[in-house]
Write a structure and sequence with these properties.
The chain contains ten helices and two strands. The protein has a two-stranded parallel ribbon with strand order 1-2. 62% of the residues lie in helices and 2% in strands. With 178 residues, the protein is mainly alpha-helical. Helix 2 (14-21) packs across helix 3 (30-36) and helix 4 packs antiparallel against helix 10. It has helices at 6-11, 14-21, 30-36, 44-57, 60-68, 76-79, 85-93, 101-118, 131-142, 146-168; strands at residues 4-5, 169-170.
């Protein structure tokens, strides 16, 4: 994904703004469209906060749709090569594209148990984890109640979105550098 400057985003049309950063919330570019109205942003942090405010203001159904837009970890979409480029890169960073058959079976079992209990995929900011810590998190989070786990899933999406956003938007002090 090419980088853009904050000043460019502050002047961009809604369509260009969404095209540039709509991907940060997986499958949910409408949140970027809503945040566009809050321009101008003084910092990437302020832009990140504006995106998250839109998620926080969303209805429960919209939040669940955002959660459900994420793929399972090491799941069918990964096997079929149907992940977004960002999801593929993120899952690869934790070695989820290099699982042994036994590890793959464990992820498949945990994904199914989690989805059965909560009705959405297990989401974790994999760039902050290893395969082992992801498995530990699965075990911990399967013990959560649905309300607690929905909040945890959204918090993890917030981490993912923030990392994606900071990976593509250059802050004002960085705009002069190539």
């Amino acid at each position: 994904m090419p980088t853009v400057t904050l000043s460019w985003l502050n002047q961009a049309s809604e369509a260009d703004f969404v095209a540039a950063i709509g991907f940060v919330l997986e499958g949910s570019p409408h949140f970027a469209a809503r945040a566009w109205a809050s321009r101008p942003f003084a910092s990437v942090e302020q832009l990140s906060a504006a995106l998250w405010e839109e998620v926080a203001r969303a209805t429960e159904a919209e939040q669940l749709a955002l959660i459900r837009a994420h793929p399972d970890l090491a799941g069918k979409a990964a096997i079929a090569g149907e992940l977004t480029e960002d999801s593929r890169r993120e899952q690869s960073s934790a070695g989820l594209d290099r699982l042994t058959p036994e590890q793959f079976a464990t992820f498949t079992r945990l994904n199914a148990a989690y989805r059965e209990k909560f009705g959405f995929p297990f989401i974790i900011c994999v760039r902050e984890h290893t395969r082992e810590s992801i498995l530990t998190s699965f075990a911990t989070r399967l013990a959560h109640d649905p309300t607690e786990e929905r909040a945890t899933a959204l918090a993890e999406i917030g981490k993912i979105a923030r990392l994606r956003l900071f990976g593509v938007v250059r802050a004002p002090k960085e705009e002069g550098s190539a």
